[in-house]
Structures are given as structure tokens and as C-alpha cells.
Design goal:
Layout (H helix, E strand, L loop, with lengths): L2 H59 L1 E16 L1 H7 L2 H21 L3 E6 L2 E6 L8 H24 L6 E16 L5 E5 L1 H12 L5 E4 H7 L3 E11 L3 E11 L14 H26 L9 H17 L4 H13 L11 H12 L7 H12 L10 H10 L8 H14 L6 H14 L5 H19 L6
Parallel strand pairs: 4-6
Antiparallel strand pairs: 1-3, 1-4, 2-3, 4-5, 6-8, 7-8
Length: 464
Amino acid sequence: MNLRSKDQLLRRVARLARQNTELEEMLKKLDREKNELLDANERYKLLLEKHKVSSVRAEEEERSLRFNMVTVLYADIHGFLKLVEEMDSAQLMDELDGIFYEFDQIVSRYHIEKIRTIGDTYMCTGGIPQKNITNPVDVVMAALEMRNLLDTYERARRGDVRIWELKIGIHTGPVTASISGKKKISYDVKGETVNTASRIEAVSEKGSILISVMTYELVKEFFRCEYLGKLPVKYTGDLQMYQVLGLLPELSVDGQGIMPNEAFRTRFALMQFTDMQEFILDKLEKELPDYLHYHNVKHTVDVVTEVELIGWAEGCSDEEILLLKTAGLFHDAGHTIAYDDHEFHSTVMARAILPGYGYSEEQIDRICGIIMSTKLPPKPGNLLEEIICDSDLDYLGRSDFIPVSNTLFEELKAQNKITRLNDWNKLQVRFISGHQYFTATARSLREVNKQLQIERIQSLITED
């Protein structure tokens, strides 16, 4: 090989070496880029998974519930468009915001859910999110307060001049509520009930509160209403409408139908009792011990029913009936805490729960006294205490005494308080023989049967 060929070969080897080095560097670079892409891909996957979770959570947050009885209110501040031309727009919006703020305070007091405001229209619903039987009365009361608020507002600012005028439409029925949000939950309601309430508001005249016949049937025992006419409703025919004039005279402070009196509050509480009873009975169903074969939900319902029956027969007032039914509902609720001294525990629960249902301190004290009177041996100190004591031991004179008595035996046996049925029967004879009903009503209904029970139990007793 000559010198020239040798130089060419060396240059070629050097070039190949350089190319090899460059390829190695490129390979390392590509390997680094590959690793970076893999890392980026993993990050993107993680972000995608987080996005999916957020999407699922968002879908979970936007859920729908069905409510069978909701009362929808539409309120319109009539004359808004006309005022735009006559008043300063900033002043106009400030006044409207102030009025809507006061509306918010009113609906909050009545546990009504504000849905939205659109321009000069205010929408709210009763019975959401907490289902209750009183929502038609709550919403109509709120409507009366809204109207009275606006009248007071205008008199204070303008005397006899009226710029703001309110018209309201109310309807009760089923709705579908869409729920969204986590920290601040908001609701949107849809359905024919919403559309009907909006249509009623549209035909309402300024200063009037119109309600559908559905709402009327649920509130007529509280409010003075006037039949107004029929509203054509698509697919369902004509809908009867009523105008709310105010509270019934006997339920208002001055007879003018504006401010509710004690008679209204008692009648409302008797209506609300249904909601409270559902809550307490559900609590008892879930929390009472399994060994309570006698002091169970059925016994509580029996006592609530019996105190009302005897109470009316003994001439009790509406408020006294309310106190009796409430005491009957709570009188054995303390069994969820302890068997012994359950009456005291029942009063503790009553004092914790009843303020939330509008009971006064005086009423709660009387209810707790009625509950404590059921502690054996019964020593009632007044008519109401006599009524609940007779109701609590009503089974002594009933035809089903033996099977009911046996459930009490099983309850005591489960706690080793008594073990032999024969001993139980002997104890029953002694107890019934020394027992007497306190009210004339209970004596006339149960005393004769009670004597028969003694004979029946004695026939079951055997000599030891």
C-alpha cells in the first residue's frame, strides 16, 4: 500500500470514528428524549386520571332528587320597566336589591329555599331540601310578609304614593330538584309545578297573592281566601285559583289577618307534629334495643293515639292536645339511652329537640312534667298527667291484654329482671288489682275489662 492510499485509509477511519462518536452522542440524546417523553407521558396520564376523577365528582355533585310536595312561589315587583325611564338606574337597582335582601330574610325565617332572582322576579320553594308537611302554610305566610314589607317600605319612603307593586303566584305539587355544589349547595327546580306557579303569577294583579286549588286545600284552615276563577292549563284542563286575603280573623292578633296569634301557632304546631312524629319514630326504629318487645314503636304510636282520644273526651284545648301528643311521642324515647330512668332521659331529649319545632320554654316544661308522671307507680298531679298515665297503661283493660302483657314479660326476661312466666302472672295480678284509671273516660272504657283480665291471669297461675 502506497503512502497516498494509507493516508486516505487513515482519513476514512478517522471520519468513521467521528461518525460513530456522533451516532453515539445522538443515541444518548435520543435515549434522554425517550426517557423525558416517558416521564411526560406518565405525568399526562396522572393528570388525565385526576381530570376523570374531577369529572366524576362534578357529575356526582350535579344530582337530581324527586320531591312529591313542594310549594313554589313566584313574586314579581310590578312596574320595574316603567320605572327605568322615570328613576335613576343606580337608585332603582339599589332599592330592588334592598327589597330582595329583605325577601331573603323572610324566606330564611320560614325555612324556605331561595332558588333565584331574574330581573324583577323572585323565586323560592318550600319543602326543599327538608321535606315537610307545613311548606304550603310556610310559603303563604312568607308571601303575606313580603306584601306587608313592601307596603311598609313604600309608606315610609313615599307616603301614599306607590311605585313598587308586588304580585305573587303560588302552586303546590311535585318537582324535580337538581342539586349542585359542594361547599355551597344550590338547587334548581323543574316540572309542571314550577310552570304552573309562574303562570299563576303572570295572571295575578298588583298587590294580590294568588294560589292554586292544590295549595288552597292545604292552607284553608289558616287563611281567609276568595275564589277568583279558573286558569286554563295545557293537558290538565282548568285550574281553580284563590286569592289570599290574610289570616283567618280568629288566628290573627288584631283580627286584621296580618300577625299570627297563639291560636295560629298551636294549629300550626299540630300540623307540624306529623313531621316531628316521623322523625322521632324513625329514630326509635333505628336506635331502640332489640330486646324491647313492649316499649317499641307500636307502643309509642298507641300512646299518642290514646292521649288524643282521651284528651278530646275530657274537653282539652287544642294546645293541651298538642302537649299531650308531644309528651306521648317522647315519653319512651329515653329507652334509646337507658332502660332504667328512661323517663328522665326522655325529658333530656325533648328539651334538646322541641325548641327546633317552635315550642316555648313553658310548653317544654309542661311536656317534661307530663312525661315524668308516667314513671311507675304513676302519681299524676293534673288532668294532662292523668290522661297520659291512663294512656300508657291502656292495655290493662284491652281485649289483647294477654299477648301484650307477654311481650312485656319477654322484655324483662331478656334483661334478667324476671325469669318465670308464673312469677310474672302473679306480679300482674297484684299490679292490676292495685291499679286504677284516673280519668272518667278511661274508667268507662277500660275498668270493666280490667277486672276480667285479673280473672284470666289467675286461671293461668299454677302452684309452685
